[in-house]
Design brief:
The protein is an alpha/beta fold. It contains 13 helices and eleven strands. Strand 2, helix 4 and strand 3 form a beta-alpha-beta unit. The longest helix is centred in the N-terminal third of the chain and has 22 residues. Bound molecules: S-adenosylmethionine.
Length: 366
Amino acid sequence: MTDADQNPDYWQEYGPFQKVKHDLIRNYLGGWFPKLGTWAGRVLYVDTHAGRGRHRFGETGSPVVALDTLLGHSHRNELFRKSEVRFLFIERDPANLNRLDAELKAIGELPDRVHVHTSAGDAYALLSGIVNDLRSSGQHMAPAFIFVDPYGFKVPGKLLAQLMAAGRVELFVNVIWRELDMAIRQKQPSGHGMAAALDDIFAGDSWRAIDGETANERMDQAVELLSKGIGAKWYTYIRMTTGGSAVRYLLLHLTNHPEGRKFMKECIWKVAPDGGFEVRQRDDHRQPLLITPEPDLTPLRDWLIARLRKRPHARQELDDELRSELWLPTHLRTILKRLHANHEIEIDDSSEQISLSRNPRQLSLL
Ligand SMILES: C[S@@+](CC[C@H](N)C(=O)[O-])C[C@H]1O[C@@H](n2cnc3c(N)ncnc32)[C@H](O)[C@@H]1O
């Protein structure tokens, strides 16, 4: 197999998919660097499919986005007092890597606490070597954010699981859903090429249980199984759709840390404020939104009422339970305020216990 970039046209344009990918990285790292940097002493950003660093009309690629996020961070000096930050950019195509090196060089001299390393070759082979070295020396990986951005749908689930287990590691994976779904639906018998590829992706044959009727049902099942196989407690994803509603890609964030889950949800709400957790290819990313769409909070209201019907809840308890939903604490606060103003709930000021009102004035429609 050749090392050459299989899809050089990728670099000729820059659409909503790239923009959202990069916005999420920028927003997430903006919070992640200082958060981990205060205690870890060293943090690591890895771009497994780093690319050229720049698109044809000047938009920056993910390695430059990640590095710029750190260099332009308002707390960078405080961060550097406590931590160093290492970047590893892996790229298989030598011409792409040369261009990336030139882009990085153009950034100029880096602060002492920032180390950038580019590496030629196959990302998965390189990362397997790193995992094996860590294992044989009994060491952990520094807290890491690993961005996996291949063109194709084949990602090695077992290796990703080993990386997750190697330390406080978070993964951000571009899952090429349309092709993955097609492969799953073939349901080939074991031993066949596609079945073996799926066994690799899911780190086992759990994918055979995916039986949803609709693509969305299969997607939810697949994401849950992938996350489980990779060993992530929390998964959060945004769908990228083409044309109508067909999903082309998923950007999937995996973490074992509740803070990471909470923060990625906030980042996704920022890029998709209507709450659909979806980005459409036809959206014009160059036009700023004149009106930020308001999410429909009715399902959250129903979620809350269903809980309170069972028993009163403390505020913190509701916040904790909300983590596995897509809603944010700020949405919950909005609903609580509305229900309280409408006398549908009672909030005990001293204990912060929230209960359904014994005497609701009327049912609000929100
Ligand atoms: C989707 S592009 C990466 C885009 C980049 N992450 C960004 O957001 O700017 C995929 C890149 O991965 C490279 N590539 C493909 N297979 C690879 C592999 N196994 N290991 C490392 N790089 C690979 C390709 O040459 C291409 O440059």
